[in-house]
Amino acid sequence: MDLDRLAEQGYVIVPKFLAPEQCHELYQYATQLAPQDWQQAGIGRADQYTTNSAVRQDKIRWLQREVPYENAYLRMMDQLRVEINRYLFMGLFDYECHLAHYPPGAFYRKHLDAFKGRSNRILTTVFYLNPEWTEADGGQLVIYGDRGEVLETVLPEAGKLVVFLSDVFVHEVLAGQRDRYSITGWYRLNASIGGIVDPTR
Ligand SMILES: O=C(O)CCC(=O)C(=O)O
Ligand SMILES: [Fe+2]
Fold it and tell me: Which class is 3-33+56-188 in CATH?
């Protein structure tokens, strides 16, 4: 992964972050989950959490260390965290992530993943699991610059990882024609102060 690029432009797109076999396993895992394994995605954290289908319509599943397939991904992202800290001195403290499933037609309107000075979400990672995704399938991630210009339009293709600063880049997920699977996560700083434990979600 090109950490210089991340440092320079605030985001990086890695077309083949994982080998095809690893992507395929995660894809199989995500697609065989039962409806009760998923929850309606919301906006906001902890006591500010609400669901709002006008803003986002995906279903999510927080990954847990107790589930082997899920732990494997978490451990890999832990390694990446150490690498980023070593190289960019970011002091990232931990990582949380969820699987996301966007059924056909589902979207996530323009948003930031964190607000300046208000959140401990520092870096967003999005990893895509979708084999043979084409332009016609839609479901692109659009990343905007600070004047509202389009910086990147990203196809959610299997193996691709996108990493960006959570409080800098407005982004959105366009509606697609197919079921769209991804793993979205956040590297966080430890914002616990005065013995008050900061909730992870
Ligand atoms: O799936 C994507 O491309 C982005 C998802 C996203 O923006 C989020 O979950 O906050
Ligand atoms: Fe987001």
Answer: mainly beta
